[in-house]
Amino acid sequence: MKEVVGVGLIGYGTVGSGVVRILHEHKEKMERETGCDVVVKKIVVRDKEKERSYPLHGAQLTTCIEDILEDTSIHVVVEVMGGTEEAKEYILRAFEAKKHVVTANKDLLAMHGEELLNAAARNGSDLYYEASVAGGIPILRGLVDGLASDRIQKVMGIVNGTTNYMLTKMTEEGVSYEGVLREAQALGFAESDPTADVDGLDAARKMVILATLGFSMKVAFEDVDVKGIRHVTQKDLQLASQLGYVMKLIGTAEEKDGAVSISVAPTLIPKSHPLAGVRNEYNAVYVYGEAVGQTMFYGPGAGQLPTATAVVSDIVTVVKHMRLGTTGKAMSFASRSKVLQDDSNIHSKYFLRVHMKDETGTFLALTKSFVQENISFDKILQLPLDDENAEVVVVTHSTSKKQIQQVCASLDSQYMEMVSLYRVEGE
Ligand SMILES: NC(=O)C1=CN([C@@H]2O[C@H](COP(=O)(O)OP(=O)(O)OC[C@H]3O[C@@H](n4cnc5c(N)ncnc54)[C@H](OP(=O)(O)O)[C@@H]3O)[C@@H](O)[C@H]2O)C=CC1
Ligand SMILES: N[C@@H](CC=O)C(=O)O
Ligand code: NA
Predict the structure, then answer these.
(1) Given this model, what pLDDT does residue 112 score?
(2) Are residues 105 and 190 in the same domain?
(3) Is any atom of ligand 1 closer than 6 Å to the C-beta of 57?
(4) Quick one: pLDDT band at residue 331, thresholds 50, 70, 90?
(5) Domain extent at residue 40
(6) What is the mean pLDDT of residues 28-40?
(7) Which annotated residues bind NADPH (predicted)?
(8) Catalytic: 2?
(9) Mutation test of ligand 1: which of 130, 307, 313 has the most ligand atoms closer than 8 Å to its C-beta?
């Protein structure tokens, strides 16, 4: 008879049902990997009467967290309900009950990571959270284990499946923002409040986790410069395409001379760049290490089975630690204090759309604003807008964030209006 390891799930939605499915369908592989029979015993949900799309395979549904916390046959608690305050309380109580925790909750890790890791260590519990960033891609293990020997310089990529799905469909099929957001929700990619996806908050939380692990620095959500895709228009996508780019929501975390900058923003990427070919809910993360150079991690970033794969792999890790008697482990967190980069040291190329009066001298005024900030043009396109106005699209050479902000402030006048501003990466 194999030793039984009991699992308690909190949440039986997209990810939770995937966890039960993988544990059931990959039972033999689980036994080979762990030497144990890993069994989901209880599942906490909000509504016990709700129809479930996947069978429970013997697990008992409950609405009472104590049913899990007080059950001594449950060793591992898997939190896949989402949210922060209640989830944090349940996880802290699980540690006090000397249980190990696996979670997919990036909101929680980005906000309370340090507190949770300290509580896990105090109680000799494991805490793993691979599913919290880039769903099924083993990016956190890649950073923490695979690149443990290197000094990480930059992490950059697509870390939100919902917005990548939306931008892909909007670009390739010209579909509307609202329609494609509903599709992403129906497919189980979006957060329960999808504003977290479209406003870049979900990606920003993932970048906090990546930067914390990559640079071992105590960064917070407030340190991320965040912009989402809500204001991206079909015209932006068309003009970008005309100039050879596709738009992606890109997260960037970079350390230069001991200071870090973190951002999430819709960004233009050359069509020939590997990130341009990352479509639908897929994610891809570039990690640049001082010694290794450039590595790229690619795979499904959201959805039931990819995300559940990461969760179940974390369960495997925990069970192995239990058998070896080496629990009390977690993906390590930050040891260095935070130093943030100055805007004058953050460089990028930019794409700008400017509407201006089609009169002699306005174009010269536009050029002068850029010259004043020492910014030169890489590409420029002028198109008629109506009888009196023209649209000018500019791609600059690399410039600092501070300089581009100063130019933008000088552009809005009675003759000119800046319509869009996006970073350009990968050239
Ligand atoms: N979906 C995805 O692709 C990914 C999701 N994640 C993360 O995984 C977590 C779960 O996401 P997902 O499965 O999509 O979410 P769902 O909304 O599909 O499922 C949430 C589940 O949690 C239960 N639940 C919610 N609030 C409570 C509560 N207060 N008490 C008890 N149970 C509760 C719900 O119960 P009921 O069924 O009764 O309503 C439901 O079963 C989130 O943190 C999310 O960010 C991470 C990576 C990818
Ligand atoms: N809503 C998230 C789910 C995975 O983290 C996303 O779309 O990436
Ligand atoms: Na992952």
Answers:
(1) 96
(2) no
(3) no
(4) confident
(5) 3-135+305-324
(6) 97
(7) 106
(8) no
(9) 307
Determine which helix (DSSP H) or strand (DSSP E) holds 353, and give its type and residue range: strand 347-357
Q: Which residues are annotated as part of the binding site for L-homoserine?
A: 191
Judge if 11 and 95 occupy the same domain: yes
Q: State yes or no: pLDDT of 332 exceeds 80.
A: no
Would 334 be classed as within a structural domain?
no
Residue of 14, 281, 311 with the most ligand 1 atoms within 8 Å of its CB, for mutation? 14
CATH of the domain at 403: 3.30.70.260
d(CA 381, CA 35): 64
Predicted confidence (pLDDT) at residue 376 exceeds the cutoff of 90? yes
- 241 and 123 in a single domain? The answer is no
Residue 108: is its pLDDT beyond 80? yes
The tens digit of pLDDT for each residue in 37-91 reads: 999 999 999 999 999 989 999 999 999 999 999 999 999 999 999 999 999 999 9
> Residues 380, 398: one domain?
yes
Ligand nearest to the CA of 53: 1
Please identify which of the residues 169, 206, 349, 401 carries the catalytic annotation: 206
DSSP 8-state secondary structure symbol assigned to residue 160? -
Q: Render pLDDT for 280-301 as a digit per residue (tens, 0 to 9).
A: 999 999 999 999 999 999 999 9
N-to-C CA span, the chain: 59
Residue 309, Cα to own-chain centre: how many angstroms? 17
Give the atom of ligand 2 at the shortest distance from the alpha carbon of 160.
8
Instruction: Check if 68 has its Cβ closer than 6 Å to any atom of ligand 1.
Output: no
Q: Which runs of consecutive H residues, i.e. helices, occur in 123-200?
A: 139-141, 161-173, 177-186, 195-198
In sequence order, what DSSP letters do the residues of 2-16 get, joined into one string?
Answer: PEEEEEEEE--SHHH
Asked if 169 and 292 sit in the same domain, the reply is yes
- 160 and 288 co-located in one domain: yes
Side-chain-side CA neighbours of residue 149 (13 Å): 4
242-268 average pLDDT score: 98
pLDDT of residue 334: 86
Atom of ligand 2 nearest to the CA of 190: 1
Give the Cα-Cα-Cα angle 219, 225, 226 (nearest 5 degrees).
115
Residues 69 and 192 in one domain: no
Task: Tell me if 227 is assigned to some domain.
Answer: yes
Q: What is the mean pLDDT of the chain?
A: 96
The CATH number assigned to the domain holding 314 equals: 3.40.50.720
Q: What is the pLDDT of residue 212?
A: 97
Instruction: Tell whether 87 is covered by a domain.
Output: yes
Number of domains in the chain: 3
Asked whether 215 and 261 are in contact (CB, 8 A), the reply is: no
On whether both 129 and 148 belong to a single domain, the answer is no
Beta bridge partners of 400: 347
